[in-house]
Backbone:
């Protein structure tokens, strides 16, 4: 194909109209319907709030009902386990769409929050755990929001990192708003046996999800089910990457396999072998993306779990749950403007550079915290600087873990790549929460040292695969 700037290209000797770059007709800049996109981003925010809103008061709530700090940690971490288990049947029943998963998520979230709230009146400790397990089913929505924002049927290749940045912004809002709301509701206290400082987070979120469920039913427009067109795309791998004379990344077209448009959704054995052979060169990129997806949530989860414990144990801090929740929220508030700025940077920087900047900033926060621990000079201000760098850096890095795969792998693999990234996130959240809760007991120097070592492993993967991580911007 000859490079020409008008809207016409010569392909195989025949003229063919091509859209202007950046126009609404250009498939690389395609976006879903705005109402549906807003609903997806709000869903991600609500799920984040649901996860964090109990952090401030769950320890006291568990103690009131006869539990202990370990049980409280289990209450915080258990939802991701059930979210991972629920993903398996959900992905087999969704038929490539999203509406069913969002309806299930809202229903499970309402049940879970109500169960969490009525445990106080029932005086039944394990009802808290049951409620959080039900809420965990709603956390399958994390995977579906990621998959929606990288679905090649509705999102162009130059818009996937931008939409992933919006998810990170909503992630930051949830990480900030959740602990803050939980702390405020606990501080206000209330006095009823139904609605009080322990139960109010559950009742509040149940009401919010009920209203949001109605909005989904009225305004969300689902993606049509997968057909042979998606199979055609799945059998057509992304072409090799290069640069044109202007320095922009281009991908050479790969001729698609001749498959009928009414072909079944499940590929034939020959098509599967073709796909595996073409994608074999990308397994290193898959491993790198999964590692950083796990690493970012491991470190973020461990700090969120460790800060209340460390703050309460440190002689010069002696934080209450309310103070710890506000400290975590303050880090999210101050990082938020930079997450907004990332929306514009994502359109101009390659994904690999965003990953390098985010992990580099997070690593700097870990190194500074390590030096403060060695010199015993940890105070509120210095700890806040470290938390801000860690929260901002690794939140930025989570922007690109899925978008890199969606740009590198064939479009039909989006469902598979979304799942492995989400399971990596779940693994990081669960193990990070356990590690963070154990930080004081294993020694804070060892705690930070392990995290630095894990970042080092990621750096080796990153530098080794630097050239293969090159993708289109946007």
Residues:
């Amino acid at each position: 194909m000859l490079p020409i700037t008008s809207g016409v290209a010569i392909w195989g000797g025949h003229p063919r109209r091509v859209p202007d770059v950046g126009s609404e007709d250009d498939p690389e800049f395609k976006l879903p319907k705005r109402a549906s996109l807003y609903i997806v981003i709000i869903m991600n925010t609500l799920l984040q709030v649901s996860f964090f809103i109990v952090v401030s008061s769950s320890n006291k709530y568990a103690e009131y009902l006869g539990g202990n700090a370990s049980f409280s940690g289990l209450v915080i971490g258990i939802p991701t386990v059930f979210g991972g288990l629920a993903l398996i049947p959900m992905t087999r029943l969704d038929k490539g769409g999203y509406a069913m998963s969002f309806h299930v998520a809202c229903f499970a979230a309402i049940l879970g929050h109500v169960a969490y709230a009525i445990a106080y009146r029932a005086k039944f400790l394990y009802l808290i755990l049951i409620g959080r397990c039900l809420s965990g089913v709603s956390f399958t929505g994390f995977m579906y929001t990621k998959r929606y924002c990288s679905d090649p049927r509705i999102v162009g290749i130059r818009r996937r990192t931008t939409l992933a940045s919006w998810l990170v912004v909503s992630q930051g809002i949830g990480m900030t708003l959740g602990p803050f709301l939980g702390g405020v509701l606990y501080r206000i206290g209330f006095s009823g046996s139904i609605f009080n400082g322990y139960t109010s987070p559950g009742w509040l979120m149940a009401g919010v999800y009920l209203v949001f469920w109605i909005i989904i039913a009225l305004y969300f427009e689902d993606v049509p089910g997968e057909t042979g067109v998606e199979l055609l795309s799945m059998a057509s791998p992304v072409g090799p990457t290069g640069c044109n004379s202007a320095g922009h990344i281009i991908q050479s077209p790969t001729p698609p396999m001749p498959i009928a448009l009414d072909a079944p959704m499940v590929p034939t054995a020959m098509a599967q072998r073709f796909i595996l052979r073409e994608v074999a060169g990308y397994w290193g990129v898959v491993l790198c993306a999964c590692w950083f997806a796990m690493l970012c949530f491991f470190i973020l989860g461990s700090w969120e779990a460790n800060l209340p414990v460390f703050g309460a144990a440190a002689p010069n801090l002696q934080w209450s749950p309310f103070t710890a929740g506000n400290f975590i929220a303050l880090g999210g508030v101050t990082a938020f403007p930079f997450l907004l700025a990332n929306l514009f940077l994502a359109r101009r920087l390659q994904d690999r550079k965003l990953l390098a900047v985010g992990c580099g900033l997070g690593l700097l926060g870990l190194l500074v915290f390590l030096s403060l621990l060695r010199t015993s000079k940890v105070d509120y201000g210095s700890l806040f600087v470290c938390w801000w760098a860690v929260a901002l850096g690794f939140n930025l890095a989570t922007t690109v873990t899925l978008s890199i795969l969606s740009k590198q792998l064939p479009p039909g693999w989006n469902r598979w790549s979304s799942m492995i990234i989400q399971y990596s996130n779940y693994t990081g959240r669960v193990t990070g929460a356990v590690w963070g809760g154990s930080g004081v007991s294993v020694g804070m120097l060892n705690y930070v040292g392990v995290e630095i070592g894990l970042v080092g492993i990621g750096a080796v993967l990153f530098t080794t695969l630097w050239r293969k991580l090159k993708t289109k911007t946007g």
User: Anything to note?
Assistant: Confidence is low (pLDDT under 50) at residues 1-23, 228-267. The chain is about 70% helix and 5% strand. The CA atoms of residues 179 and 325 lie 5 Å apart. Residues 283-313 form the longest helix (31 residues).
